[in-house]
Amino acid sequence: MPAIRREIDYIIGRVLRLEGRVVSLGPLIFFSTDSGDAWMLDPSDGGASCLARDGARHRLPRVKDRGARSRSSGQDRPNRRRRIHLSRCDR
Asked: Fewest Cβ atoms closer than 10 Å to its Cβ: which of 6, 21, 25, 82?
């Protein structure tokens, strides 16, 4: 998941400068506000993870790539559409 980590690092960098930004990576949306908050959203399942609040970085959420499984064999198959799971960060 290095691409997701890069986007998280980018958006946190904007938070530390109190700059509002919106970026996307596939279905994921990352945004920061000029008040120091940052979030990662997954509109496909309604998931959201707080990355920063009031300029203070939160512990990074665990991101698990669930992959795409073949229904017939149950084995991973190459597919650009992959499901991920975002766990909520602690306050």
From this structure: 6
